[in-house]
Amino acid sequence: MAYSIVVGYDGSEQSSKALDKAIEWAKVVEGAEIIVACAQGRSGPAVGFRGFEFGVEEMWDELQKKIETELEEATARVKAAGVTVATACTPDRPDVTIINVAQDAGAQLIVVGSKGAGAREGQRTVLGSTTTKVLHEAGGIPVLVV
User: Fold this and answer.
1) Helix (H) or strand (E) holding 75
2) What string of pLDDT tens digits covers the 146 residues of the chain?
3) Which residues, 6+ apart, have CB-to-CB distance to 112 below 8 Å?
4) Cβ within 8 Å of residue 19, ≥6 positions away
């Protein structure tokens, strides 16, 4: 059985740092693999509802393309480092995705950024809500916060 490291990835600067740390860790653990977990349940730009004439479908299509691009970029970075990589992307909230993927994979480690894409600029929060939830709900799996 591989040593599985699940990384919560949303394309944010902090999740990129978390991915770098997971790659660093995986390179020193024999047989390690990284599972990049992303959530499609992220919120898009806030808009008032007035129907589809305002491009709501296009907005969600663009968000889906952005998620796919971020996942491809993350996967390429892991492969370039010579580490085995898998991906898991679900329609759930990010915290639920990370925890479920880690539990399903029998992961030995979860790596997350201190804050993610949902953090507001200028916000003085040390830990974001997803990170806090993962820390509370990881069910005995060690969590490294970067």
Assistant:
1) helix 56-80
2) 689 999 999 999 999 999 999 999 999 999 999 999 998 765 555 555 555 555 667 777 887 888 899 999 999 999 999 999 999 998 899 999 999 999 999 999 999 999 876 655 666 667 889 999 999 999 999 999 99
3) 7, 8, 15, 18, 98, 130, 131, 134, 143, 144, 145, 146
4) 7, 9, 34, 36, 74, 77, 78, 111
> In the beta sheet, which residues pair with residue 89?
38
Q: Which helix (H) or strand (E) holds 15?
A: helix 13-28
**DSSP secondary structure string, 27-53?**
HHSTTEEEEEEEETT----------GG
Q: How far apart are CA 2 and CA 61, in angstroms?
A: 35
| 40 backbone dihedrals φ, ψ, rounded to 5° | -80, -5
- pTM, two decimals, is 0.85
- Sheet strand arrangement including 143-145: 84-90, 32-39, 3-8, 109-112, 143-145
What's the chain's length in residues?
146
